[in-house]
Design goal:
The protein is mostly helical and about 120 residues long. About 70% of the residues lie in helices and about 0% in strands.
Length: about 120
C-alpha cells in the first residue's frame, strides 16, 4: 500500500527527486567511466613474462578485462543518458503552457488543473 496521494488522471512530476536522481546518475556515470578506463589499462598489462605456458592465460586476461571495460563503459553511457532523459522530461513538464492547460480544462468538463 502506498502513502502517495491519489493522482489518477494527472501527470505529476517530482522535480526535487528528478534533480537528486540526475545528480546521482551523473556521479555514477563518472565513476563507471573511470572504472572502465581502469579495466582498459588492466587489459593492456604486459604479461609477456609469462612465456609460452602463460600465453593462453594472457590472452584470456586481456579479453576478460577488455570486455569488462566495454561493459562498464556501456553502463556509464546508459546511466548518464537516462539521467539526461529524466532531466529533459522535467524541463518539458516545467515548460508546459498553463494557458493551454486552462483552455483544455475549460473545454473538457471536470478536468483538474494543477499549478507547477
Amino acid at each position: 500500500m502506498s502513502n502517495s496521494p491519489d493522482t489518477s488522471g494527472e501527470v505529476v512530476f517530482d522535480y526535487t527527486a528528478s534533480a537528486a536522481y540526475t545528480a546521482a546518475a551523473a556521479q555514477a556515470a563518472g565513476l563507471l567511466s573511470t572504472a572502465s578506463g581502469g579495466a582498459a589499462r588492466a587489459a593492456a598489462f604486459d604479461l609477456s613474462g609469462l612465456g609460452v605456458l602463460g600465453a593462453d592465460f594472457a590472452a584470456a586476461w586481456a579479453a576478460a578485462w577488455g570486455n569488462l571495460g566495454r561493459t562498464v563503459e556501456t553502463a556509464a553511457v546508459l546511466t548518464d543518458a537516462y539521467g539526461q532523459a529524466v532531466k529533459a522530461w522535467g524541463e518539458v513538464m516545467a515548460a508546459t503552457d498553463a494557458h493551454s492547460a486552462d483552455a483544455i480544462a475549460a473545454t473538457v468538463a471536470d478536468t483538474p488543473t494543477r499549478e507547477v
